Amino acid sequence: MRSTIRFWMNITGAVLILCGMAFGQLPEMQFKSAQDVPDFFYDMMTVASQDSGLTTFRFFSKIAYDELQFLREDNRYHARYELSVTVFDQHGDQADGRIVQREIWVDSYEETNSRLNFDVAEVSFDLKPAVYELLVGLMDFDSRKTGRRKTRLTVPEYGKDQLEISGIMLADRVLPDSTGRLRGVPNVIGNFADQQESLFLWFEVYDHLGLDSVRVQTRIFSLGGDLIRTAADFYPLEGERTELVIHIPREELGAGRYKLEICIGKGKTAICKVRELTVHWMGMPAYANDLDKAIEQMKYIASGKETKAMKKARGEEKTRLFREFWKEKDPTPATEENEIMEEYYRRVDYANTTFGTFHEGWRSDRGMVYIILGAPNDIERHPFEVDSKPYEIWSYYQYNRQFIFVDQSGFGDYHLISPFWEVLNEIR
Fold first, then answer.
1. Alpha carbon of 387 to those of 390, 392, 409: distances in Å?
2. What does pTM read for this prediction?
3. Which of 80, 97, 254, 324 is the most buried (most CB within 10 A)?
């Protein structure tokens, strides 16, 4: 269970900045995460199915122990949760679904509060190649709290070409199972953890040419397109289906986001797959992948003077200023995590994935209110009112306040039309 009361809004001396104007302190309140639900990560990949005409879709979830409710039983601690994954076709009909129940036992209370220990779950489906919508739910059995995710899923068709590559799993390690097949332990979050020295790429090669070996090239680019590292080698093939594992060392990869490209074959006939990879430095929250971007996103919690100093700094000085700012806000400095920083960037990430339109979601009015006040207790949506633009009403019961957002353009770009900063000054 989350033993720490998260109160990121209770920050003495924090200054809000918008359009160059200071609006005072953030309101003092007890922290509640988004809708007070378990937060989890997920990843997915596809491989060729053993059944002709179908593709196997593999889904992985990862949740930190601190997100779950642990109960003491016989001098140990026990948590249970349920993962549900439902696949809908383009008509909205359910194509498939799975539910798995997980149990976790730990020996110490400290482990129940860890954000470094995770439980990983997997479900898989055989699906027809098509575009689907995926609905994921994770429910803590004891608290009954549920987190949900919705995403788009494209399932490709394998077997059309003479040489193919499956989806790519980023794995913390790769081990043989009871049959001798290599099984990756999914990384899921898509990054190097603090002090983690290496990761692995697990994928399958499908060969219908009868080749003895295949050339595999691995290239790592910065998001700006600069080539950081390249390696190539020939790997033996074991018939029509071969599992391959590529080692990715952290060495020489500084903190930041990268594009990782795997190509099999050579020249114009090469088949390539791409995925992103993140390298964190110690203390960077999982939701923040880029230090410069993370500093820019601090506009709702830091003063213009503070962010300006960070932006002007270079190298280790920039990192030092960033860490010092958040260290001063850490409500539990003796623990391994900084709850305020983690929650702030989790809200930024949620705003980006939920409210983005022509600009990043954290810059939008809904994103701003969400980041500052957290999830509303209730949202009234009115997308098709006669004689009215689409609008939403967000209610915060603890403040007895409502905020109205209107989509003037009709393209999902909602703007706040009710007072906010005056209300913020009243409730802080």
1. 10, 15, 14
2. 0.69
3. 80
Task: Say which residue, 287 or 316, is predicted with more confidence.
Answer: 316
Which residues partner with 205 through β-bridges?
165, 242
- The helix (run of H) or strand (run of E) holding residue 112 is helix 109-112
- How far apart, in whole angstroms, are the C-alpha atoms of residue 118 and residue 138? 14
Residue 428's pLDDT is 61
Q: Which two tokens stand for residue 148?
A: 């949900």
CATH, domain range 35-158: 2.60.40.10
- Residue 418's φ and ψ, nearest 5 degrees, are -95, 155
| Biggest alpha carbon–alpha carbon distance for the chain | 73
pLDDT of 32 above 60: no
In this predicted model, what pLDDT tens digit does every residue of 389-427 receive, in sequence order?
Answer: 899 999 999 888 899 999 988 888 899 997 777 777 666
118: nearest Cα among 58, 193, 199, 36 = 193
Q: What is the pLDDT of residue 30?
A: 35
pLDDT at 11 over 50: no
Distance CA 415, CA 321 (A): 33
Q: Are 260 and 248 in contact (CB under 8 A)?
A: yes
Q: Please give the single-letter amino acid code of residue 342.
A: E
Phi, psi dihedrals of residue 387, rounded to the nearest 5°: 60, 30
How far, CA to CA in Å, does 237 sit from each of 184, 221, 243?
Answer: 19, 27, 9
Q: Give backbone dihedrals phi and psi of 62, rounded to 5 degrees, phi first.
A: -145, 125
* 134, 98 contact by CB (below 8 A): no
CATH class of 163-280: mainly beta
Angle in degrees, 0-180, between the axes of helices 316-329 and 304-312, rounded to the nearest 10? 150
Where do the structural domains in the chain lie, given as residue ranges?
17-32+284-427, 35-158, 163-280
Cβ–Cβ < 8 Å for 244, 206 = no
**CA proximity to 42, closest of 61, 59, 57:** 61
Residue 5 pLDDT greater than 50, yes or no: no
Tell me the helices (H) and strands (E) count for the chain, helix number first.
7, 24
Asked if residues 370 and 361 have their Cβ atoms less than 8 Å apart, the reply is no
The answer to whether domain 35-158 and domain 163-280 are alike in fold is no
